[in-house]
Amino acid sequence: MSHELKSFDLAALDPMDEARRQIEICNACRYCEGFCAVFPAMTRQKAFADGDLTQLANLCHNCRGCYYACQYTAPHEFALNIPAALAEVRVDSWERLARPQAVARAFQSHGVAMAGLLVVALAWFFWALTALRPDSGAGFYAHLAHNTLVAIFVPAFVLPLALIALSVRDYWREVGGGRVRLAHLLRAFDSAARMKNLSGGHGEGCNFEQGDRFSNRRRVFHQLMMYGFLLCFGATASGTVMHYALGWEAPYPLWSLPKLLGVPGGVMMVAGAAGLAWLKLRADPALGAARVWGGEMAFVLLLGAVALTGLALYAATGSGLVGPLLAIHLATVMVLFLLMPFSKMVHGFFRLAALVAEAGKPAPGGGGGA
């Protein structure tokens, strides 16, 4: 492909070919070498197979610092836009390695509509189930029996996780991920926990929503979302242990472990979702995969809705609002589970796999990666 191309629509080009063209130019320049994990990784080679590009794309956190530092962006004849080029390859990997692919592609393009319709349909379903009230039970178990919820939600959680596991396995094979050692896992989890690659090349943050100005807002909102989600997951897990191992059934008081984890976690998720949605509205869509804007926004809003309805359900304890709020909350949780293999939720699994694979690669210029 000619480097004399002055302007183009990334969506009209083959994502791999265009990413390869741009990465090869970047690899010759290397001005952005210290910006994030992508640039030292690309220096190991001069030619890039499709699997190499998939790995680089999933290492990219779309912080956009390289775009504003680059001297070869449009109107230069090279017309580089690395954030958008890698975003197209990254989204293509999520869609291509998903099962079934058609659902993934449909969600990425029409995510808000799909998620919204599913929430409405499932809310009506759960509302109808509340008509079959159990003979006993407290809290929301007075509206839906515990065994009924388990029978519905366990398959809805396990089956999507199985599909994600198959996708990650295919990803690992495609990028040539090697033998995993404990040191690789520790390094990858450390990077993910600190969100190191959202801090920018100099620790000043991303250029995501403010152009050539640095900001750590995106990193903070991502951390609020991630740690809030983990706290909520911990609340559910602790409640499961208390129910089955200790015989302590819900509802739980505020001082109990499920509430001590779940309430702060829900507040953090709501704050994170609101912040990420706000940043997405401010960000330049031309520096990402613009065609999947709806799917990405749907994912953010869905996470926020799960947390917000959960907090509202807790606040409504003992009132007549418990029934309808329970139906809405369960619907949002169910949709989140069902869409996990096709929504941006899968990016966390792919990105962690990319970080693990990167930790096992030899350091640029020689030496081991472990």
Can you describe what's shown?
- Keywords: Membrane, Transmembrane, Transmembrane helix.
- It comes from Gemmobacter megaterium.
- This is Citrate/tricarballylate utilization protein.
- With 370 residues, this protein is mainly α.
- It has two domains: 85 residues, no CATH class; 261 residues, Fumarate Reductase Cytochrome B subunit (Up-down Bundle).
- The chain is 62% helix and 0% strand.
- α5 crosses α6 and α6 packs antiparallel against α12.
- The longest helix has 30 residues.
- The radius of gyration is 22 Å and the shape is elongated.
In short:
The chain crosses the membrane at residues 111-129, 149-172, 224-246, 261-281, 293-315, 321-342. With 370 residues, the chain is mainly α.
How many strands?
0
Tally of individual domains: 2
CATH structural fold name of the largest domain: Fumarate Reductase Cytochrome B subunit
Q: Rg to the nearest angstrom? A: 22 Å
CATH class of the largest domain: Mainly Alpha
Q: What portion of residues belong to β-strands?
A: under 5%
Amount of helix: 55-70%
Poorly predicted segments: 1-8, 366-370
Mass-distribution shape: elongated
CATH architecture tag of the largest domain: Up-down Bundle
Largest sheet descriptor:
none
* Total count of helical runs of at least 4 residues: 13
